[in-house]
Design a protein that fits this description.
Blueprint lengths: L1 H12 L1 H4 L3 H19 L4 H4 L1 H10 L8 H40 L4 H4 L7 H18 L2 H15 L3 H20 L6 H8 L5 H25 L10 H7 L7 H25 L3 H19 L13 H4 L5 H19 L2 H12 L3 H12 L4 H9 L16 H4 L7 H12 L9 H10 L3 H7 L1 H23 L3
Helix pairs in contact: 1-3, 3-17, 6-9, 6-14, 6-15, 6-17, 8-9, 8-10, 8-12, 9-10, 9-23, 10-12, 10-22, 10-23, 11-20, 12-22, 12-25, 14-15, 19-20, 19-22, 20-22, 22-25
């Protein structure tokens, strides 16, 4: 299964050379891995999922008379696969909703209200402005939505494709780094927060400076190569990008304010209701859908049809959603087969140091999805109760694993920022790759080294911060 996944990863990276869409490769890989897993499940499930398997059998008496193969097939089919499909669906639905909301705003020229106020055409100043906005906005909403918003803005400002790719790549880094120091900025930070390993204030205290360093380093490197001003887009190019037949200022402001407000309300909704974020984003999309339909209720359908939500849903990048689904299901199959657990145990054996382990996890998060990696990392060490720490045989070492312990905060940084090393290493990168059609190899050649230096620089800043401020390593 691991060999098949690696082979698929190579094909995805060579998409533009072999002319096979990465979504097709990801879908085939995901489905094949689950097919292989269900055939080998009798040799894996009873050992790797002993407690869950026993509980499943106890809840389904009819299975007790069946063979082990039939029992494990039922367990994989009706418990494990369904659970992962639900998890993947949450992410895909959230992605769908966020892309649709941003597209609605964009189609109504809402972002022009912002871009028209960015008067500087100086390349360096513009890059700094966009990166600072991305870094802080991703902590308020999330890195995925921020990347979508900022890349949409770039399409309004920069006409040259290669230059836009460069700016978009730095936005990916800023979005991922910004999401790492906030409990609601990334899926992994939400996971660690919900599990009780980190709290919002301490997370920001430990991770903000390293995250900022991880952005500043590549930002300075890119800035050195930028000179002069960006050419003003021609009216012809603007017209090709978006129609503007009936969109008055009132409609622009209404859709922009409602859309951005809705996006900002997503984490608040999650905090108050504990419902998955996709519920909130779909509520926002549905509300915007109603509002825009009401805007055009007295206008013939054929005139503003391209502005209606029903029309723009067809414009959503379905291949990107399918790619995301295939990759997540592929990683889930490897996880259930014990591959990620074996990897985590290998890391614990070979690198019995919390800093080294987390740095390696950061590298791995650039290749595979960081959510199952963080889930596996959570199982490496137990969450230690602070009140019982003194009774443990090695309290000094185990203090790393109390709530708000150094291990958990460094894991948050590495898993979030490490995804920037490759363009397919994060949801933000995957989405921007789909929107801008950025080539995997181009990002690897132009951006990965800068992202790596930023990642290692931030990691060094974290260790130095722990030593100077907290007086320990």
């Amino acid at each position: 299964m691991s060999i098949l996944f690696i082979a698929a990863y190579i094909l995805i990276s060579l998409e533009h050379k072999i002319k096979i869409n990465k979504a097709a490769t990801a879908l085939v890989t995901g489905m094949l891995l689950w097919t292989i897993y269900i055939f080998i499940s009798p040799g894996i499930v009873p050992q790797h999922h002993e407690e869950a398997f026993k509980f499943y059998l106890s809840e389904n008496d009819v299975l007790r008379e069946l063979s082990l193969k039939e029992q494990t097939v039922s367990f994989v089919e009706n418990y494990q696969l369904i659970e992962h499909v639900g998890d993947v669906a949450e992410i895909v639905f959230f992605l769908l909703g966020a892309m649709a909301v941003v597209e609605l705003i964009d189609m109504h020229c809402g972002f022009s209200l912002i871009t028209d106020r960015i008067t500087t055409r100086n390349r360096k100043k513009l890059l700094w402005i966009l990166v600072i906005i991305s870094f802080f906005l991703s902590a308020i909403i999330d890195n995925l939505t921020t990347a979508i918003v900022m890349v949409t803005l770039l399409n309004k400002i920069i006409a040259d494709k290669n230059e836009r790719w460069l700016f978009a790549s730095v936005v990916i880094i800023a979005s991922n780094s910004g999401g790492a120091w906030s409990p609601i900025g990334d899926v992994t930070t939400i996971l660690l927060w919900v599990k009780g390993t980190v709290t919002p204030i301490k997370l920001m205290e430990y991770v903000f400076i390293p995250s900022l360093v991880s952005v500043i380093i590549p930002l300075l490197m890119v800035s050195r190569s930028l000179h002069g001003e960006i050419p003003v887009m021609t009216d012809e190019h603007k017209h090709k990008m978006r129609h503007d037949e009936i969109i008055d200022q009132r409609r622009k402001i209404t859709v922009l304010v409602m859309g951005i407000s809705g996006l900002l309300m997503v984490p608040i909704f999650k905090n108050f209701t504990n419902l998955p974020p996709f519920v909130a984003i779909m509520l926002v999309l549905g509300t915007l859908w109603i509002i825009t339909d009401l805007m055009y209720r007295r206008i013939p359908d054929n005139i503003p049809f391209h502005l209606r939500a029903a029309s723009l849903i067809k414009r959503i990048d379905l291949p990107t959603l399918l790619f995301f689904m295939g990759i997540l299901l592929a990683v889930a199959a490897i996880q259930e087969a014990g591959g990620l657990l074996a990897l985590s145990k290998f890391l614990e054996t070979k690198f019995n140091n919390i800093y080294t382990i987390n740095i390696v996890i950061g590298f791995l998060s650039a290749i595979v999805d960081n959510v199952p990696l963080v889930a596996a990392a959570l199982g490496l060490y137990p969450l230690v109760d602070s009140s019982t720490l003194s009774t443990i045989s090695d309290p000094t070492f185990m203090a790393y694993f109390v709530p708000d312990g150094i291990y958990w905060h460094f894991l948050t940084y590495c898993a979030g920022v490490g995804g920037s090393l490759l363009i397919i290493g994060s949801a933000a990168g995957v989405v921007v790759m789909g929107i801008e059609k950025i080539h995997f190899i181009w990002y690897l050649k132009k951006i990965s080294l800068m992202a790596l230096l930023g990642y290692l620089g931030g990691a060094a800043a974290f260790i130095l911060e722990v030593f100077l401020i907290h007086g320990r390593l």
